[in-house]
Write a structure and sequence with these properties.
Elements (H helix, E strand, L loop, with lengths): L26 H14 L12 H13 L7 H5 L3 E2 L6 E11 L6 E11 L3 E2 L2 H12 L5 H16 L3 E10 H4 L10 E8 L7 H16 L5
Antiparallel strand pairs: 1-4, 2-3, 3-5, 5-6
GO molecular function, one term: GTP binding
EC number: 3.5.4.16
Subunit structure: Homopolymer.
């Protein structure tokens, strides 16, 4: 195992996103648990093929699969810059992944995000970072989709926000009832995408967004 501190310092942020973490990530305990798991499977965790597996698995989980716990969605998005334009902004095809809390396997796919500026514009890379901060946790795809849209409203000062996530759920693809190519699509609309003084305006915004992402959706 690697020489790592028993508790890596984590930032206690965004406890309302995904499955809340009750403490900090215990790197040493995680590696011991992986070694125990390999032993429970009848494998030699100290052998030539798996001697560094506990460290590798820990690094993957801590840095990538669960790295969102150490990110603040507000800081990931940033303040943007003042701009009077109010036209819809769409960022399509953002790679996204999360971890299913039921089976402890990842799901992965694409997030399509849009917002109606409320006086501020945000960098496209910043929006992708926001998706990472929210997705890289134990969470459900449905929650992730809603959390992304609500974060754009709350932290991005948007008049409205929308998010569609299309993902492959490994717990479904590898399950007993698997069919081989199932994809799950979840949608969330907030603000003027959901309602406005004139209901037809919200419907028009939703349709415009859905057309924009459908025109280039990957098969």
């Amino acid at each position: 195992m690697s020489d790592c501190s028993s508790h890596d310092q984590a930032i206690p942020l965004a406890t309302d996103i995904g499955i809340a973490r009750q403490g900090t990530f215990d790197a040493a305990a995680f590696e011991r648990a992986i070694a125990d798991l390999l032993g429970a499977c009848g494998l030699d965790a100290a052998g030539p093929h798996m001697g560094r597996t506990p460290q590798r698995v820990r690094e993957l989980w801590q840095r990538r699969l669960l790295g969102g716990y150490d990110l603040d969605p507000a800081e990931a998005l940033g303040e943007g810059f003042a701009d009077p334009r109010g036209d819809m902004v769409v960022v399509r095809g953002i790679a996204v992944h999360g971890v299913c809390p039921h089976h402890l396997v990842p799901f992965r796919g694409l997030a399509h995000v849009a917002y109606l500026p409320g006086g501020r514009l945000h960098g496209f890379g910043r929006i992708a970072r926001l998706v990472d901060a929210i997705g890289h946790r134990f969470t459900y795809q449905e929650w992730m989709t809603r959390d992304i849209a609500e974060a754009l409203m709350r932290h991005g000062k948007a008049r409205g926000a929308a998010c569609v996530v299309e993902a492959e759920q490994l717990c479904l693809l590898l399950g007993e009832d698997r069919r081989g190519d199932e994809r799950v699509i979840t949608q969330a609309f907030t603000g003027e995408f959901q309602h406005s003084e004139h209901s037809e305006h919200a419907a028009q915004a939703r349709n415009e967004f859905l057309r924009a992402i459908a025109s280039g959706r990957r098969e």
